[in-house]
Amino acid sequence: MLSFFIKSTIFLLYSVAITSSESHDIEQRKQMSDPTSELSNLFWFVQVTDIHISKFSAFSRAPDLSFDVSLVSSVLICVLFQVTDIHISKFFAFSRAPDLKKFCLTHLTNIRPDFVIVSGDLTDAKYADTRGSKQFIEEWKLYQRTVNDCKQAYDTTWFDIKGNHDAFDVPGDFDKRNLFRKYSEQGWTHPSSYSFTHVKPYGNYTVIAMDAAPIPGPRRPFNFFGYMNKERRMKLQDLSQQAMNSSNMTLWFGHYTTSLIVDAEENNIRNLMKDAAYYLCGHLHTLNGLLTRMYTRHNTGTIELELGDWRDNRLYRVLAIDNDMLSFTDVKYGEWPVVLITNPKDALFTSSKEPTYRMKNSTYIRILVFSTAKIQSVDVHIDDKWIGLAHHVQGPLYALKWNPASYLHGLHTIKVTVQDSVNMLKTVKQDFSLDGTVTSFPFLAKMVLTNNIYNLTQCIFWMLILIYIVLLLMLRLLNNIQVMFIQGQNVITRNVGHFINIWLLRLWLVTKIKSLYWLFTLFTLYVAIGPWFIADVLEGEVGVLFVWGLYVKGTLLPGCLAYLYGIFHIVLFNIPLLLMTGYIIHYTRQMSQKHHIPRFHKLKHIYIPFLSLVIVNTLIAITEFPAAYGSKAMILGPVRTGSIFVSFVAYHLAQKHALAIPAFHKVDKD
Question: Residue 604: exposed, middle, or buried by beta-carbon count in 10 A (0-12, 13-18, 19+)?
């Protein structure tokens, strides 16, 4: 159940732009009125995400003679494909790899990237039951073959990094079970984080690959969160410093969203990448369709862009850097044409790390149009007013002269409509501003990406523990529960008050039985501080799970997901059992005052509810952890397996001592 709740997950990908050197800025400002210089500093790239592979064309555009192509002597193009969460599986979804190969044949050859980024979860590494996990060599070989096929279709460089699935059951970076090192493109040279610099005539652009997969990598589910230890952090600091000294743009990519990375130094991981203009990632799979567009801007100025998955949605992203300003569009595989407005850029993604002032001095609206068919027309409107037809410059680039002075204040809307020779239409709209006015990111996306989920779940868990323990203690110390009762003034408040009073009475009755009070208190404390289970967290390696951490191979990994399981356990077991026990005591006391009890009355009110709670928790105890870590997790699992015994002990004590509590006739009758 928790796995379903959490696995509303996939993967975020992303794009960058950073300013060039000061002397370069001055030179570009001098040449802004010259379309040759303005357009020659344009390059673009494509991002694809969440391909989840499972084991089991050159532009044909005639020159537009109405536009003086000679004004642009050359256009420098840099294309990037980013792929994330490929999840190659030997058990299901066999179309992922073939579709990726087709994608390379139709899109890679059309958009012609300089390099490809693959940001984690290259393989699925799960058994057919989706609970057990390990690295399967068949999946890794399929990934390797797919990459080779793509490189044969279009020769370019692939840069990949590990995701959490690529670290399932991996003891270390140099262990033989780390198949990423042998079958990925970069694993042998770069088993962890690394960087590379793309050199263009007008600047250097550095991309930093951040590896946050936990090492040792436990089998699922306890590596859903990323983990940045001290050694990895120091390496990334060095890479970031080198990029800042030698590049006019830095882009980071990784598998996890920043909200799901735990930093060993207890610093916010976003501070580590504060010099990056954009961070591309995946991992969250559009939250099962709840958020197909997850973007946000952090306090450091870095913009984080989560991209929907390839695995289920076949989404990819095209990004372009135009005069050191980045633009992008998310596209579904197979949809044409692909349209990207690079100038003026979208106001939603205005960044303090980009020279956005250049838009004021620009002379051309610039649009990238990719299609397998010939483009017939590119219509441009601003604020619902037709501006004109953009002219084909070269390759996918279209341009149209404009007067920025007409749009200097506030937000404006640009709309581009493209039609190709096979009558495919694509309309793109975006807001822009030349005075720094920005629009807001959607609230839910901001909440998912900007919060520290680890700290949030940790806080919720300990608050639940504290409230649970303190409430029981307060009720235990209270001699007369009637002083806590709510007196309603009208029908609604009386009904609400009666409901609350009844449950206060039932909880109070539980605390008045000393053995029950200590049973619930001590078991809840054990959930918070004691080991949950002892089992083979790695194949052949015994680990111990606490809610606050997982100890395996001499390493203590932060609890992370265990806190979510802890919340799940308190809400779905500890609290329901407490309420059920109070109900049993109250019911027993009420029925003791009656001369006749209807047939099956106790079956409906006691046995069925109680057994339902026990059955649900028994199913969880014998399936969730044992399926992932073997029978040891059940046999040596005091929390999940122990819950079953605690249930029956609580039932026995409630029945035994229900009538021993001094009577309060009025409330007992209620």
Answer: exposed
Tokens representing residue 624 in the block: 């969730």
Integer angstrom CA distances of residue 130 from 283, 284, 426, 550, 633: 17, 17, 39, 21, 17
Which pair of structure tokens corresponds to residue 76?
A: 């420098």
Lowest mean pLDDT among 66-70, 118-122, 309-313: 66-70
Could you tell me the pTM of the whole model?
A: 0.86
- The two beta strands, 203-210 and 194-200, are antiparallel
Tokens of 638: 């005091």
How many other C-beta atoms can be found within 10 angstroms of the C-beta atom of residue 469?
A: 15
Domain boundary assignment for the chain: 2-57+76-450, 453-669
- Radius of gyration (Cα) for the chain, nearest Å? 30
313: tokens are 């949605």
Question: Is the CB of residue 660 less than 8 Å from the CB of residue 515?
Answer: no
**Residue showing tokens 């050694």:** 231
Nearest to 350 by CA among 368, 382, 328, 325: 325
Residue 380: C-alpha distances to residues 416, 427, 429 (Å) = 5, 10, 10
- Classified by CATH at the fold level, domain 2-57+76-450 comes out as Purple Acid Phosphatase; chain A, domain 2 (3.60.21)
Q: Are 97 and 63 in contact (CB under 8 A)?
A: no
Per-residue pLDDT, 11? 34
Q: What angle do helix axes 514-529 and 453-477 make, rounded to 10 degrees? A: 160
- Nearest Cα neighbor of 302 from 641, 655, 18, 664 is 18
